[in-house]
Amino acid sequence: MQNGKEKNQKIENFKVTGGRKLSGIIRTNASKNGAVGLLCAALLNRGRTRLHGISRIQEVFRMIEILESIGVSVKWIAPHSVEVVVPKKFNMSNLNKDAAIKTRSIIMIAGPLIHYLKDFRLPHAQGCKLGKRTVSAHIYGLEELGVKIKVTNQNYHIRTNKKLNPAEIVMYESGDTACENLLTAAALIPGKTVIKFASPNYQVQEICFFLQKLGVRIDGWGTTTLTVHGLSKIPNKNIEYYNSEDPIESMMWITAAIVTNSKLQITRCPIDFLELELYKLKKMGLKYKISEIYKAKNTHTNLADLTIMPSKLHALEDKIESRPYPGINIDNLPFFGLIAACAEGQTLIHDWVYENRAIYLTLLDRLGASVLLADPHRVFIQGPTEWKPAQAVCPPALRPSVVLLLAMLAANGTSILRNVYMINRGYENIVSRFNSIGAKIRSTED
């Protein structure tokens, strides 16, 4: 889909011939979450912004459709590079609501837009269906800066009737997108804004690095207290910025090697955001090698190449749960559910963040796993599993959908994964990339 438009009538499925070993080298792509955040942050720059490392995935396409609908020029200048130019005046009446409700990231344009518009509305969004997902951290944080937000049944009504002010903000929760929103809001409020209990996650650091390239000084990036030295204006600058690699994609390849009991080299892994995941896996018995560390093209993020070896795993005595960075990444927890099904013994997976996502792990039962749902947040998984082929429909969530695909790769025989839009939201050319390392997946349409 070169132009990023959705196929309105066709439903894409994956036909998976499993039980094959993976081998060779696979490269980690640039970050989905980083790309979306950078597209939003680029609205602050009145000059030309060139962003590299922008994946051609559904989530990015939807955000570009949103930006173009309100007057922003977004042009693909290379296969994974875009040029963003903001208009003299935004046309919010033309906002593409269909695209907006498909991505929860729509609320992230509020932070930049408060510097251009005194009164505007953004629709409620969907994205992954993972239970109730509060936006209170966005709302409360922006209100501390002088923004008025009224929540209606259909939208967020955002007003800035008075001068915005720097503030000391205690985040209602340590959310990634909320922190990004507050960073872009504070960037153009002169003075010092302090954000406490901030997320230090990879996509938040990406926005910090980008804002610093625009001339905004930010102290404390990589920690839970960020200090933003806001500017009265950002000069019309023509800048280039490189989005760094995706640790969640690296974890997908790690998991693929584990579940198929394969030797696989994964290059350009953001190693700082995988350290705890790898340490837990080491304690489970995983054998792997890490190369020397080198820098990403953004000049900040540390990368390394990983080689995963076939290993016999055993369950950890302690539960596995996610935490804000530097804990196990929330998006990596479903992969641990699949890995637990490969390990000898019983594992408790505790997904305390989302009400519904742990439930999706029970879909692994169709492929032979033993998953006991304790409550909406906790599952007990007994391994090891003798995987068997099956048919399944992707759940309405990105990472659990990928987990099903990986389990199918391990199952001897032919499996069908139906309606893979959720996977296409976050992964580019996933079929050809898996097939390049020995998998056998074919895309079909209903």
Question: How would you summarize what this structure contains?
Answer:
The protein is an alpha+beta fold and 446 residues long. The protein contains 14 helices and 24 strands. It is 28% helix and 26% strand.
Ends distance? 17 Å
Approximate helicity band:
25-40%
Poorly predicted runs of 5 or more residues: 127-132
Task: Please give the count of helices.
Answer: 14
Class computed from helices, strands and strand pairing: alpha+beta
Task: Let me know the largest β-sheet.
Answer: 5 strands, mixed
Radius of gyration: 22 Å
* Average pLDDT number: 94
How many β strands by DSSP? 24
Which percent band covers the strand fraction?
A: 25-35%
Bulk shape:
globular
Description:
This protein is 28% helix and 26% strand. Strand 11 and strand 12 form a beta hairpin. It contains 14 helices and 24 strands. The strands form 6 sheets. Strands 2, 14, 15, 16 and 17 form a 5-stranded mixed sheet that branches. A 4-stranded mixed sheet has the order 22-23-1-24. A 4-stranded mixed sheet has the order 4-5-3-13, with helices on one face. The protein has 446 residues and is of the alpha+beta class.
